């Protein structure tokens, strides 16, 4: 019941505030906080809450906020204005909303795009050169490793070479033996010497 009553009275008092603002040309600002903490407000179309609070502060002599909060509010307004300007500039760089730009502004925009494109190409070339340099370094390292490997083989003594050869031969023989063991048995057909008749033919 209290929530329904609050909703009705809130709408009624906001309606009265609008009537006073329109019919009497008065500056009205209304702020209401519900028991849930939700805020409802109304301000005259010809004014703002900040302006009305400034007037109240000057005429009543009561300080609502100090210089620190005022500077913070000004900084917020400045950042918001700067952000809006950057959003417009970004749309122009994308080729949007450029019908309102004059010839000089279009030339400035074109120059900015050309400078950006030049910077992108320079960065692309820098990355390409770095990749080529890395490839060359890898190739040189590979050649150096191959050279060291060749030198190591050349510097091996006769006994080391012989041992390595015997080890290789043993591995090869073991592989041949394993391969032979895996082969299935082949059927044999027995025939006597050509001067004797074939036993199979006789059967």
From TrEMBL:
The lineage of its organism: Eukaryota, Viridiplantae, Streptophyta, Embryophyta, Tracheophyta. Residues 69-155 form the K-box domain. One of its GO terms (cellular component) is nucleus. Residues 157-180 are annotated as: Disordered. One of its GO terms (molecular function) is DNA-binding transcription factor activity. It comes from the Eukaryota. Keywords: Coiled coil, DNA-binding, Nucleus, Transcription, Transcription regulation. GO terms for biological process: positive regulation of transcription by RNA polymerase II. This is MADS-domain transcription factor. The keyword Disulfide bond does not apply. Residues 1-46 form the MADS-box domain. It holds the Pfam family SRF-TF. It is found in: Nucleus. Residues 62-96 form a coiled coil.
């Amino acid at each position: 019941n209290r929530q329904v009553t609050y909703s009705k009275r809130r709408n009624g008092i906001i309606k009265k505030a609008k009537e006073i603002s329109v019919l009497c040309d008065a500056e009205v600002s209304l702020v209401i906080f519900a028991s849930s903490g939700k805020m409802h407000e109304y301000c005259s179309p010809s004014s703002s809450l900040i302006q009305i609070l400034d007037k109240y502060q000057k005429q009543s002599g009561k300080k609502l906020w100090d210089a620190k909060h005022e500077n913070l509010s000004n900084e917020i307004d400045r950042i918001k204005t700067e952000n809006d300007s950057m959003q417009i500039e970004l749309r122009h760089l994308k080729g949007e909303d450029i019908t309102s730009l004059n010839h000089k502004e279009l030339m400035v925009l074109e120059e900015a795009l050309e400078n950006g494109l030049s910077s992108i190409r320079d960065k692309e070339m820098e990355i390409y050169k770095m990749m080529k340099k890395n490839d060359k370094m890898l190739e040189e390292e590979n050649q150096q490793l191959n050279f060291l490997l060749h030198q190591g083989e050349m510097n091996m003594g006769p006994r080391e070479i012989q041992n390595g050869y015997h080890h290789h031969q043993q591995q090869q023989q073991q592989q041949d033996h394993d391969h032979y063991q895996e082969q299935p048995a082949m059927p044999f057909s027995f025939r006597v010497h050509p001067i004797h008749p074939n036993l199979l033919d006789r059967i």
